[in-house]
Fold:
Amino acid sequence: MSSPSEIETRPWADQLALDDAAYRDQLAYLFDRSRFYRDKLTAAGVGSDRDAGGLAEIGELPLTDKAELKETRSTTDPIGAHLCVEGSEIVRVYSTSGTTGTPSYIPLTAADLDNWVTGSARSYAASGIAAGERIVTTYNAGPFVAGAALDAFERLGLGHVPVGTGNTERLMRAVELLRPDAVVLTPSYAAHLVEWATDREFDLRGSSVTRVLVAGEPGGGEPAFRAGLEDGWGARVTEAMGIGDIGPSLWGECEHQDGMHLGARGFVHAELIEPEDGAAIEIGDGAAGELVLTHLRHRAAPLLRFRTRDHVEVRASPCPCGRTGPRVRCVGRTDDMLIVRGVNVFPSAIREVVAAFAPRVSGNVLVRPREPGPKQDPPLPVSVELARGATPDPSLADSIGKRLRDALVVQAAVELLPWGTLERSDYKSPLVQR
Ligand SMILES: [Zn+2]
Structure:
């Protein structure tokens, strides 16, 4: 196991003091260079960086929404009004993977890119993977922000085998012949490969892989779902998380598997808010809310109080690995949150409750809300896929319904589906169908 760097074990109060100084410099930079933030902050009654104060006052500044940035884009200004540098200073431009309309472009200076790779390398190194080990990656990431995460594997001194998605045969052949120590994929794909291997009597548990690093969607941190992956792969599963506009793999879990550490510490400041009204929530043990992120030393197009729409739970107890600072586990996108008779519920929490019924269920679920928007009248329709060869047993549906009521205070109408009915994906699988 590799030990964390000195920076990662720095007392959190010392980190926050350094972050406060970086943040004040970043604010001065925004007032100087960013049309978007100069206008936005001035309109909010904050006329200068001195008026804005330090990190202790950050909650008084306005939030930034992705849609606002989009509104400032045009054919003559394709990046938007938050661009702060000359074209000649930009060394890379990523695109968001949105499938509709004009993509968002994310420019980076050489220093920005270096900071991204540093943070991402720390997040992945937390998993315990070390120089000299071999890793197979499955991201078709070239144009997208995850592409910078691939640079992080090089930074760590790993032997990198990029395979990409779209060809499971080729991937598993690489696992078999090149004997990697680790693979990187989405949790959906990791689960799909367990089934794929079972179908073909491929000995996944006996493969060389000892670490499965998952990212791209929530799931890797859900105990029952993770247990299924670890059993199927015969490997340890840890998760990582980033957000396109801010940086790749900002967070990464260590071998203690109790939430993700902020690998991008010193580069990014994290806050929590209530998604409904934007009210600040203190980041303490057990707190939950939407993650809001601020760049601390970004140059090309820095963001201030950016709403990630990721809903996280916080752990603030000391971690035995020695890394300091709060850890997070993502439970879902705020857009996926449903409100059933006043109770907030995330589809990932439903999957986690259902997964505990393995081996009678496959672990695949689909929530089918009847109303548009978050508010739903009970019962909430939930399709649960049975395990291979299992016959539908009405008492199983009743037991799952009862457990969902007890654990999540949600009344569900559970429908059992035969094995293989729900869609599998080599990237991300939806948990909600509207
Ligand atoms: Zn740790």
